[in-house]
Design brief:
The chain is mostly beta strands. It is built from no helices and 16 strands. The strands form five sheets. Strands 7, 8, 11, 15 and 16 form a five-stranded mixed beta sheet that branches. A four-stranded antiparallel beta sheet has the order 3-1-5-6, with no helix packed on it. The N and C termini lie far apart (95 Å).
Length: 210
């Protein structure tokens, strides 16, 4: 057998493979060598792999490496009654050892907001995970409202997410409790947020429980 030692001249590039490969002896013998390319950023770069053996000499292959932009991840369709909000959580994983602070961008900030769980900063620990909370607040009835969410960092590139939301008819809002001592008047506030772009004229009706 002939042992051929491999060496990448571009250690900074995200290419990986076995350090040693063995080729059977004999004319025409060959072996398949597998090289793994795992880019973090989109773009084109160059590299090379050398096969070296004291008896057989040196063979080298030039590599043209092309990292493609990430394909957007389709998130589930969110449904919510107008006047309220609904949230969806998803996880982002860090492929590097360094702690990174992500930049978030949203193509539709009117209807969507992005934050880490607990409204914390979008800090991604080294080789760790970050739970991201996407909040949808509808502003139309029975109309799909779309957005593209981007999470990015210069060292690891960009994650893209596509989301659709659908506003539904208003439902019962959370109860407001007002308490007062007997015989003492008091007041309370019931908050109502107009989810639409135009002013609303509302009819108010009070009902007293028996």
């Amino acid at each position: 057998t002939t042992e051929i030692y491999t060496l990448s001249l571009h250690d900074a590039l995200p290419i990986f493979g076995d350090d040693v490969v063995t080729v059977p002896a004999g004319p025409g013998s060959s072996v398949m060598y597998e090289l793994l390319y795992s880019p973090l950023l989109a773009g084109v770069s160059a590299g090379s792999v050398h096969f070296i053996n004291p008896a057989a000499g040196e063979f080298w292959y030039q590599l043209k490496l092309s990292g493609e932009a990430a394909v957007p991840v389709e998130l589930p369709t969110l449904r919510c009654a107008v006047g309220g909000s609904v949230s969806h959580e998803f996880v982002v994983s860090n492929p590097v050892s360094e702690t990174l602070t992500l930049t978030a961008r949203c193509s539709n900030p009117r209807n969507y907001a992005v934050a880490a769980r607990g409204n914390q900063a979008l800090v991604l620990p080294g080789y760790g995970d970050l739970t991201v909370v996407l909040t949808y607040t509808p502003s139309e009835l029975e109309v799909e409202e779309e957005a593209t969410i981007s999470l990015s960092h210069p060292k690891i590139g960009e994650w893209l997410y596509k989301v659709r939301g659908l506003g539904e008819m208003p439902a019962d809002m959370p109860a407001t409790e007002v308490t007062a001592p007997l015989g003492t008047p008091t007041s309370g506030n019931v908050s109502f947020r107009n989810p639409f772009s135009q002013p609303l004229t509302l009819n108010l009706m009070l009902e007293q429980q028996p």
